Amino acid sequence: MVLSHVALRPLIEGVALVIHPSPKRAAPIFGADLMALPTRISVNADVYGPPELRRGVLTDLAESFRRLGSHDGPVWSKAIASGEGLHAKCSLRLVDDVFAALTGSVGHYLDALTRAPVASETDDHASREFFAAFHANGPRKGALGRVFGEAWAERYSRLIFE
Fold first, then answer.
1. Residue 114 covered by a domain
2. Is residue 70 packed enough to be buried (19+ CB in 10 Å), middle (13-18) or exposed (0-12)?
3. Average pLDDT of the chain?
4. What CATH number should be reported for the domain holding residue 24?
5. Which pLDDT belongs to residue 104?
6. pLDDT (tens digit, 9 = 90+) per residue, 142-157?
7. How far, in Å, CA of 2 to CA of 150, rounded?
8. In angstroms, how far is the first alpha carbon of the chain from the final one?
9. What angle do CA 70, 139, 135 make, to 5 degrees?
10. Is residue 55 assigned to a domain?
11. CB-based contacts of 133: which residues, under 8 Å, 6+ apart?
12. The domain containing residue 11 runs over which residues?
């Protein structure tokens, strides 16, 4: 698990979380972030991996995600994301609801992880796909990369997988 705190007050304050399952478990990767910006909250939580592993993990939370205005995740993640995740930009007044939805998604993922079967063989293909997509399109290309600089964004992107 990699939990990081990102702060550049008063512009950005947030957390990012990536949970990598044991290679001995047939389970997807969980990725989430919650960023408080001057005018809104940005929140993302989804599972990534092969369709048979990612399907159904966050289904029970669809209604609460929809109430927050959740939409499809980033285009770059479509091939590896569940399509059931939380991807929203919300009013700062909804911070309690956003945090509840985020922690609910973590709980659902951890429950799914405890039920995940033992992997028949060790395969880190899902992890490599997630890293490639995240590294090419994540902090290096977004606001964090612009604010903190290319070297920081490059190191941060790799930290999540080391």
1. no
2. buried
3. 87
4. 3.40.1500.20
5. 97
6. 767 777 788 877 787 7
7. 20
8. 10
9. 100
10. yes
11. 48, 76, 77, 79, 80
12. 2-95+120-159
User: For the chain, how long is the longest CA-to-CA vector?
Assistant: 48
- Mean pLDDT along residues 12-37: 91
Amino acid at 125: H
In sequence order, the β-bridge partners of residue 40 are: none
pLDDT in tens, 109-126: 999 999 999 887 766 666
Domain count, the chain: 1
What is the model's pTM?
A: 0.87
112 found inside a domain: no
CB 45 within 8 A of CB 64: no
Helix (H) or strand (E) segment spanning residue 154: helix 150-159
User: β-strand 86-90 against 41-48: which pairing, if any?
Assistant: antiparallel
Judging by DSSP bridges, how do beta strands 12-19 and 29-36 pair with one another?
antiparallel
